[in-house]
Amino acid sequence: MMPDKDAWCVLLEKELPNETAVVVRNLAITSRYASWYLQEPTLFKWAGMASFASRQVGFGLALFELLYAPSAKPSSAQASLQLTGIPVYLASLIHTAVADRLFLQDLEVIRKGNNAIYRDIAWAHAAYLHGGITEVESGCGERELEFMLAGFRMIDEGRRVLASDAGSREAQLMIREGNILLLRHEQLNTLQPLFDTMTPAGRMLASFGSELDFSCGSPDALHRKASFTEYSGYFQTLAGIRSVTSQNDRWSWIEHSVLPAWEEADRSFCSGSYLHRQMLEMASGKGDLIRFTAMTASSFCRDIGLG
Fold this sequence. Notes:
Strand order of the largest sheet: 1-2
Shape: globular
Strand content: under 5%
Number of helices: 13
Number of domains: 1
Structural class: mainly alpha
Order of helices and strands: HHHHHHHHEEHHHHH
Distance between the termini: 45 Å
Helix content: over 70%
Number of strands: 2
């Protein structure tokens, strides 16, 4: 007997580190998306793209981890124990004020978004792998009907056509459109309410940090990058005229820059390709140097009582 939606969510949550382990949890989410793509590269296009998006979010979360760890203020008693404690204490106060006001609130939104997307869509991928479209249909509520369920139905129909006609262009288009519907669900229903709570400074930070690199280290694929700032214009982004937190601005960037770059990378996928190797690395849960540094620094600060 297959689990229902709530049971799937509980099961998948148990496989992740606790939310307090910000960077490690992000690595686990990224790993899960990459694993699903590797398992069904013909069908799970959204999962493949989501692994890169989650990986990019991880860089912001590494900053969150570095800022959060030392933000606790030492007590005045500690500061008075040694003369050098006075400037350290003042520096800590300044650091905390800046981090709290300019970074932590908005980086917390990004952290919540990474978790919310996983909770919202991961269960359906797991359910589809184990029970097919029937299992997804039985778990979807009214909120998921317009985009997510419709998307999985298109993906499943494309799969059925490919079973009898492996080269069907029609089936490939159905699968593509189905995955785009999953993307719409993610962007409109899950992310937008969170983006609406960000500060103006946070919106700018998110905009300048929104760059997806699908080149996977291939010297011949450096053009497979999608930068929101390059697409929207540096001045427009800096002035706040365009923002990745704006639903219309973000979807225009996705439609005209992100999707073309990702789809070109996806078409290159085969055993041993640059994309295949990148997916294997992400699926393994390996972190980038900056995230490893963040985890190490955060752990050290906690050990010495600063976080």
